[in-house]
Amino acid sequence: SGIVPTANILQMGINDTLQIADGFDRGIEYENNGFDSKYFAGSDSIKIIFDNLYSIIHYVNTPAILAPKYYLYTSLRNIGNYKAYRQDIASSSKYSISKKFWFVFTEQDYLDTQ
Questions:
Q1: CB of 19 closer than 8 Å to CB of 10
Q2: d(CA 91, CA 76)
Q3: Which one-letter DSSP state was computed for residue 111?
Q4: pLDDT in tens, 59-85
Q5: Do the Cβ atoms of 11 and 23 come closer than 8 Å?
Q6: Which of 28, 34, 69 is nearest to 50 (CA)?
Q7: How far apart are alpha carbons 54 and 7 in whole angstroms?
Q8: What are the distances in angstroms from CA 6 to CA 11, 15, 24, 70, 98?
Q9: Given a cut of 60, is residue 31 above it in pLDDT?
Q10: What are the φ and ψ backbone dihedral angles of 7, each rounded to 5 degrees?
Q11: How far from chain centre, in Å, is Cα 25?
């Protein structure tokens, strides 16, 4: 709806890291599991702003009208696409697996806002 709750606005500096999700799933399926995030839940898009000036939209669902700068959900640069994350297995057992997912903004992400 174009409204962003204050609780969903995150600010980060250079080399900052931020945990955006935490959860648990049963099973040891390695290929298809992602994660749930309170920041992404119910969002149709995520707006990333660099230097308080340059922005790009990361779409969850492709709208009829696109923003001038955007990544579709299928892009491996889209922060909502769990396949865009590097996954590290923290621990695993016969019945469960714990993973860490890492999304890294690159120079290209910044350049794509220009």
A1: no
A2: 25
A3: H
A4: 999 999 999 999 999 999 999 898 899
A5: no
A6: 69
A7: 21
A8: 11, 23, 26, 22, 30
A9: no
A10: -65, -20
A11: 19
Q: Which residue has the tokens 């621990």?
A: 91
Burial 67-92 (b: 16+ CB within 10 A, else e): eeebbeeeeebbbbbbebbebeeeee
Query: In DSSP terms, which residues pair with 101 in a beta bridge?
Result: 87
pLDDT at residue number 58: 94
DSSP designation for 58: E
CA distance 2 to 32: 31
Residue with the two structure tokens 């945990």 = 19
Chain position carrying tokens 């080399």: 15
Cβ(9)–Cβ(79) below 8 Å? no
Q: Which helix (H) or strand (E) holds 108?
A: helix 107-111
